[in-house]
Amino acid sequence: MRPSTLGVALVLLLASGCTTPRYFQPVAGTAVPVQRVGFTVLPPQGADWFIAAGTPANVVAFGKRLRAQQPASVPATFGVAAESGRLGKVRNFDLRTEQGLRQGVEFLLSGSDPKRFRVLEQRYSFFQMQGTDCVRYSSSSEEGNNPRFPNVVFLLIANGVMCRHPTSPDYMVQVGHSERRVLGTESSVDDSARREAEAIVESLHFTPVER
Asked: What is the CATH number of the domain that holds 42?
């Protein structure tokens, strides 16, 4: 399968609850890396993690069951998404430059739908890993017009990395964790869950993209 765009994994996490059995299955507790098109990541190593079923070959998404929930009718979510794709098919970003990488991150974090997401704050830092250029991002946004909760405004906090693939420079790879909760409520995500999510981000390893 040839992935064409980025954003599938993030949209999946935002559109569905992380504890929905129809879409997520328990993680088996293995340390074997998960292989996707152009990259691998380690699965989460803590308890109460689930993996999204039926994702494309370029996407993997994990969700964490949160023990302290806000009102059950509007659940908070926390998850990790990783994906690869040709961002240039959607926008003409020059991925060889810092500006192009940053534009790619901004496009991803907007969910390609600025009417749904309003960025409150974004921070970036550029670095190199495994022979390629990457950007580390931290973002907070408001989300409205959610298809499942049209009358609720959410706060979305996302942290992760996006890189130009080292041997297929027209491909981007991103992995990050995101928390979504009702705006004005306290976080249900503890430090242990954040460490588990960050370990997945740090486990990113690039593999050849099959053409």
From this structure: 3.40.1000.10
